[in-house]
Amino acid sequence: MDVGALAAAGVALIVGLLTWTQSRATNRRSDFQTITDRLDREVTEERTQRKLLTRAYLDLHGWARRVGPDTPAGPAPEPPAELDLTPWR
């Protein structure tokens, strides 16, 4: 076989391998960015819900301190409308 053809095939193989490796690295970076963006969004939503849940708990606790066990009481305070309580229902 011709040495030039073998050299060209070898160079093409190396270039193909380098291109494939680079594209995999780019895909991994893109996947990592997508995952971190999603996690950041979920953490932000979790913090918001946690603040709302804390506020609802403190409102209920304050209501319970004002109303004794033998005191006629009105209805308990409603939780904030934007609080998502579906996991507890």
Give your account of this protein's structure:
- The chain is mainly alpha-helical and 89 residues long.
- The protein has a domain at 9-65.
- 72% of the residues lie in helices and 0% in strands.
- The protein contains one helix and no strands.
- It has one helix at residues 3-66.
- The longest helix has 64 residues, at 3-66.
- It starts with a helix and ends in a 23-residue tail after the last helix.
- The model has no long low-confidence stretch (mean pLDDT 81).
Task: Provide a brief overview of the structure.
The chain is mainly alpha-helical and 89 residues long. It has one helix and no strands.
N- and C-termini, Cα separation: 75 Å
Count of separate DSSP helical elements: 1
How is the main sheet built? none
Could you tell me the strand content as a percent range? under 5%
Question: What structural class results from the helix and strand content?
Answer: mainly alpha
Low-confidence blocks of residues: none
How big is the Rg?
31 Å
The general outline is rod-shaped
The overall pLDDT, averaged over residues, is 81
| Elements, N to C (H/E) | H
